[in-house]
């Protein structure tokens, strides 16, 4: 993922060694198609005799005294047919539009409706904000830079463009990780208190601080280079491409491999618990209601995580392969491969609102409310109530949790023949109703052992539906 501002920051000097005066045009085309780094471009231009090596760029060969390629060719290396440019522009435009508006609606649904303000949904707000920000501030700018190999946006935005994408992706993936850990704790150890609003805000703030620290080198070493007929935005590492490659391998591990491993383990344990832990014959309505609600939330989040993993995998593979097998950067269609892999990675920002709408009835009701101005969208009274009303919230000790752990006893005082005021005796009373809370007495023992798994004294069905 690295610097998402251009494929330039993904290559490690690819194609540079083979460039010479006789095949400069081909080498430049390959460099552009791979998004060559500034150092690579300087190598190519130096070999062409159009730029003298400065002392700040390491290991640059001396410039040839005679240019072997007309300078005009340096400005015309990344040309595509107009129909292909139009198709790519449409594809990237759809991603930006759906991602920005979809995630903003998700944020509105959660923050504008009190019933939606749960721990999980606060992390979804953070996820939606990071996705919408990356789509709005990075996707189109990066697409334009990859398409033209020309930086039009100035030095300050160059630093932001190299810095913010890593920050946003870090915030996204670790918001998902926080949700996975929260689901794990709520389902595996439900008697522990849930995260408070303050604790949730601290976690979200910590995620962004760590994201800033991880991405800070990209901002620190970003610069632009104004060249004849071209302006480049790049990250120049002090120790060259090798240091750059090592940094991005670390980034891939921290924002892809490690969090996906954590989520894979937690959701595997949660899935085994939810789909393999139902007690046969249990007729408790509350049990089945919360079990079904928990399964829906976990299923939705698993789909979100799998979607993220699939979308970003080709982009990471592209970076590793082009760094290890540098000859790939001279392949005729490498530019198309990069644009396709980058589009798929950026499209991960637009799928989450669609997933929420399809798999969660309250988000679906919220989207209908947001689009009720459309003539074909109707919001039923039930859907209005789904967002406006709040179900009964149990006290800190669930009634079912309490009842199933104690015998139903009543104490009756009956007057004695000897003294109506001083004598009394206890009698065990039979239950007034053969069932309580929708659970049959024949299953009361089972309900007692499982109610802590289903009914945490700190949560309600609203947390899961």
From TrEMBL:
InterPro entries associated with the record: GPCR_Rhodpsn, GPCR_Rhodpsn_7TM, Neurokn_rcpt, NK3_rcpt
Any one Gene Ontology BP term: positive regulation of flagellated sperm motility
Region feature Disordered, mapped onto this chain: 413-465
Keyword Membrane: yes
GO MF entries: tachykinin receptor activity
TM spans (from-to): 85-111, 123-148, 160-181, 202-224, 244-276, 297-317, 337-359
Keywords for the protein's UniProt record, in alphabetical order: Cell membrane, Disulfide bond, G-protein coupled receptor, Glycoprotein, Lipoprotein, Membrane, Palmitate, Receptor, Transducer, Transmembrane, Transmembrane helix
Composition bias, Polar residues: 437-459
Pfam family, one: 7tm_1
GO cellular component, one term: plasma membrane
SUPFAM superfamilies: Family A G protein-coupled receptor-like (SSF81321)
Intrachain S-S bonds: 158-233
Subcellular location per the Swiss-Prot or TrEMBL entry: Cell membrane
Family to which the UniProt record says this protein belongs: Belongs to the G-protein coupled receptor 1 family.
PANTHER family registered for this protein in UniProt: G-PROTEIN COUPLED RECEPTOR TKR-1-RELATED (PTHR46925), NEUROMEDIN-K RECEPTOR (PTHR46925:SF1)
Protein name per UniProt: Neuromedin-K receptor
